[in-house]
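Customer escalation, tier 2.

The customer says the design service returned an amino acid string that "doesn't look like it belongs to this structure." They asked us to rerun it and document both sides in this ticket. The original structure tokens are below, unchanged.
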């Protein structure tokens, strides 16, 4: 059975940088068997309805603004998979939508994990109108793909408040650490209900970056071992903390 992974992807500049977070992403690929396909739920494909993509050569999306030109020059163009997209479409009862592609929530991480871009990648969109438990239920429906050699990744940030970012601050504000710790404690004791019923906090002013975690929790199994990765809050109001669920 393949693992399921949540990553805090942080700034798009991580795609270019060699830092403590990207080093961890590179090491992860050594821990994981080579996937037949990667299915990613990114915080940056937000839709009215849930969709998947089945293009053979999905477009690389540069869905960020105001960054240095080298970031827009970076190429990460893996193949897609009609086969696994079809399985997802059937399992979830959803339609295909090919007007997006692979966004930086996906390629900024995979560029480090699988730099050859030779593993098929399929994204699943996030329907922002759904309540928490429905996102979790979609993750549960995707769980069987783990038995078929598919690596499921959720890419977002548990703490994500760009309005309160302090670019000069190394760590996080007290409320950012408290929320990150609360979610960690819930996950380690397999209290997924506690995650979904989290207290109100400036850590989650909008749910877009939090929701990928729910897909990962849904796709996890109660007998999975859990590894905490990149546990850190940065710039005051961002968390890079991630979780690997594996047998």
């Amino acid at each position: 059975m393949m693992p399921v992974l949540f990553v805090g992807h942080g700034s798009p500049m991580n795609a270019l940088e060699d830092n403590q977070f990207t080093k961890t992403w590179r090491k992860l690929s050594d821990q994981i068997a080579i996937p037949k396909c990667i299915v990613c739920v990114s915080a940056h494909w937000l839709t009215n309805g849930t969709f998947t993509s089945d293009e053979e050569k999905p477009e690389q999306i540069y869905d960020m603004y105001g960054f240095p030109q080298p970031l827009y020059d970076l190429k990460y163009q893996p193949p897609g998979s009609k086969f696994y997209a079809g399985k997802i479409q059937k399992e979830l009862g959803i339609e295909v939508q090919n007007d997006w592609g692979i966004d930086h929530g996906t390629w900024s991480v995979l560029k480090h994990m699988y730099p050859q871009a030779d593993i098929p990648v399929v994204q699943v969109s996030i329907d922002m109108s759904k309540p928490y438990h429905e996102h979790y239920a979609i993750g549960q429906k995707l769980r069987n793909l783990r038995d078929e050699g598919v690596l499921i990744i959720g890419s977002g940030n548990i703490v994500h408040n760009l309005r309160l970012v302090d670019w000069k601050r190394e760590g996080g504000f007290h409320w950012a650490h408290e929320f990150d710790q609360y979610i960690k404690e819930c996950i380690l004791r397999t209290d997924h209900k506690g995650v979904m019923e989290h207290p109100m906090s400036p850590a989650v002013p909008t749910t877009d970056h939090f929701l990928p975690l729910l897909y990962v929790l849904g796709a996890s199994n109660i007998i999975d071992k859990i590894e905490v990765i990149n546990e850190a809050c940065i710039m005051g109001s961002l968390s890079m903390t991630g979780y690997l669920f594996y047998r």
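Tier 2 assessment: The sequence is consistent with the input. The mean pLDDT is 97. The first strand starts at residue 4 and ends at 8. Sent an explanation to the customer and offered a walkthrough call.
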